[in-house]
Amino acid sequence: MGQERQKQAFLESFESYSDAIYRFCVIKTSDVELAQDLTQETFARYWQALRQQKDMKNTRAFLYTIAQHLVIDWYRKKKSVSLDALSEARFEPKDTGTRSAEDEAQYAEIQSAIRRLPADHQHVLLLRYVEGLGPKDIAETLGVSPNVVSVRIDRALKKVRQILNTESDTKVEPKKDTF
Fold first, then answer.
1. Which of 50, 134, 152, 162 sits in a 20 to 30 Å window from 17, CA-based?
2. Which fold has domain 1-89?
3. pLDDT (tens digit, 9 = 90+) per residue, 47-57?
4. Which CATH class is domain 99-171?
5. First CA to last CA across the chain, in angstroms?
């Protein structure tokens, strides 16, 4: 691939995926400045891969893989990592200004239930429902089969439903006056 073609591929990929990669990094780290740095590093490494003419069948999956590895490296280097910080992936919707108070409460419940899931289940839900990737793209990103991804998504959704149902069953209804 010639240098002009590499430059064009890079610019097209940056235009198409930079916002999604940034959102992914923000969700994984809960730090806007760090997410900007990780996004920049993701595209710097992508540029290096283009220059080395590495074979990339799916650019989107390749970028998510780079970003995921950078996030993992960041957590490994971080000295005081608590379990809470690792499991605190924030699943923020793209449009926050139009939800009612009831929607906000329901969203908070779902978010809380998702945080209780194992990290691999949180990760597939993030990629599927926040980033909009299909099972095939998620599989390429994670290095597993699409079937494994589908099973993880299914199990994660069942667990979220189970958590939400258990919580709603344990809520105490106010007693009605019986006169």
1. 152
2. Rna Polymerase Sigma Factor; Chain: A (1.10.1740)
3. 999 988 887 88
4. mainly alpha
5. 83
